Amino acid sequence: MKILDQIRAEALRRNIPAADVERWMDLVRPCALLTEGGDGPVVGRFGGPVMLPADAEDPECPLLATIDCAALPTGVTDLPLPSDGRLLFFGWPDEDGMGDVVYVPAGAAVEERQKYPSAFPPDEPEYAGVYRELPEGELHLTVDVSLPFVGTVELQAPPWAAPVPGHPHSEELAEVWENQWGGAPMLLGGYGTDYNGGDPVGTAASVAIRAERSGYRPAGTTSPNAEDWVLLAECNVSRPGAGASIFWAIQRDDLIAQRFGRVQVLVDWNP
């Protein structure tokens, strides 16, 4: 409530009409901030050993984070996440980055895989610098809220809110939120930050449609509409003179059915 009050106060200070401010605030979604330290409960870890079922393929990217679904408090996001088991997020935060998600059910037999994928050997200078910037250690949870970082939100409003096409102050209100947000290495749920100046969820839907038409997407029905998609997670990696944000987006129906092989990954490289 303190965060939302601060946003309201700043928006009103900018002379944005109160009715328009409240219309925007209807878009608030719960969001989990995941950091290397803090007072919040431990819900997983950054990095660590790669533990996968024997029939799972070797990952193409390094393991960035493992989340213990059973450790997440109820309502910390509005995502239909599994109630137990672990979500493993893989990714490579670079110009030609990529990523993946693997869900390991509770009680599943697992085996340890090599920590460094063959495509990204840690002894090569161009990759060693990236590995040095990846977070390591316990993953602490902070319960937070999320608002859009971009002014166009017609296609990604939460189910309980009406879309706001043509909102007269959307760009300014998005700026208010961006200025207030403190950042985090990883987010679970919410809207996510912007992808190359746009909405990462809407962009993921468009990319997935193109991938399906080209035959590069796992079998299933792919919706072009961002309202059918959610942001599963985002990881932000800062590097000297550059940085990258990895977005894992998924259709809500695929998330409910635990079809994590249909996650669409975007990497926003900021040199």
Entry summary:
Pfam families: DUF1963. By secondary structure, this protein is an alpha+beta fold.
Structure, described:
The structure is a single chain. The protein is α+β, with helices and mostly antiparallel strands and 271 residues long. It has one domain: Hypothetical protein YwqG fold, CATH 2.30.320. The protein has helices at residues 2-13, 18-25, 125-133, 170-180, 200-213, 252-256; strands at residues 29-35, 42-46, 50-52, 63-68, 86-91, 99-104, 111-113, 137-146, 186-188, 229-239, 242-251, 264-270. It has a 10-stranded antiparallel β-sheet. The chain has a two-stranded antiparallel ribbon with strand order 3-7. A hairpin with a 2-residue loop joins strand 10 and strand 11. The protein is globular and about 55 Å long. The mean pLDDT is 91.
- What's the end-to-end separation, in Å? 35 Å
Helix content: 10-25%
- Report the average pLDDT across residues: 91
Give the structural class.
Answer: alpha+beta
The backbone outline, from C-alpha atoms, is globular
Tally of structural domains: 1
- Report the oligomer: single chain
Trace the largest sheet across and list its strands.
6-5-4-2-8-1-9-10-11-12
Number of helices: 6
For the largest beta-sheet, the strand count, sense and barrel status come to:
10 strands, antiparallel
- Give me the CATH architecture, please: Roll
CATH class, please? Answer: Mainly Beta
* Proportion in β-strands: 25-35%
**How many DSSP E strands?**
12
Low confidence ranges: none
Radius of gyration: 19 Å
CATH topology title: Hypothetical protein YwqG fold
- SSE series: HHEEEEEEEHEHEHEEHE
